[in-house]
Amino acid sequence: MADIAAEAGLSRYQFIRRFAAVFGETPHQLRQRHRLERAREMLLLGELPVTDVCLAVGFSSLGSFSSLFSRRFGMSPSRFRKFASGGDPARHQPGCLTLMAQAWRMQ
C-alpha cells in the first residue's frame, strides 16, 4: 500500500482517504469484499469444507470469516451452503415470515 501511495505522490493515509472517496470503500474493505464474494462462490460449488474455503480465500480465523460472512450475506457460511444446495427456505427465514405465510394459506 505504501508503494502505491508513494507512486501516486501521497502518504499512505492520504491515498486511503482518496481511494475511499472515489470508490466508496477503503482498499482493505474492497479486498475483504472480494474475498467474501469468492468464498460465497466456493460455497455454492460445495466442494470444500467451510474451514478450507475460509483459508483458501485468505482468512486465518474461522471465527472472523464466519462473522464477516454473516454480516455481508445475512447467514453463516454453513447455513448459506445448506440454503444454496436446496435446503428448506422456511428454515432460513425469520419466524414472523413463516407465520405470515401459514396464516395466508389458511385464508
From TrEMBL:
Keywords: DNA-binding, Transcription, Transcription regulation. PROSITE patterns: HTH_ARAC_FAMILY_1, HTH_ARAC_FAMILY_2. SMART domains: HTH_ARAC (SM00342). The keyword Metal-binding does not apply. The keyword Magnesium does not apply. It comes from the Bacteria. GO terms for molecular function: DNA-binding transcription factor activity; sequence-specific DNA binding. Residues 1-83 form the HTH araC/xylS-type domain. Pfam families: HTH_18. InterPro entries: AraC_XylS_family_regulators, Homeodomain-like_sf, HTH_AraC, HTH_AraC-typ_CS, Tscrpt_reg_AraC-type_HTH. SUPFAM superfamilies: Homeodomain-like (SSF46689). This is Helix-turn-helix transcriptional regulator. It comes from Luteimonas salinisoli. The lineage of its organism: Bacteria, Pseudomonadati, Pseudomonadota, Gammaproteobacteria, Lysobacterales.
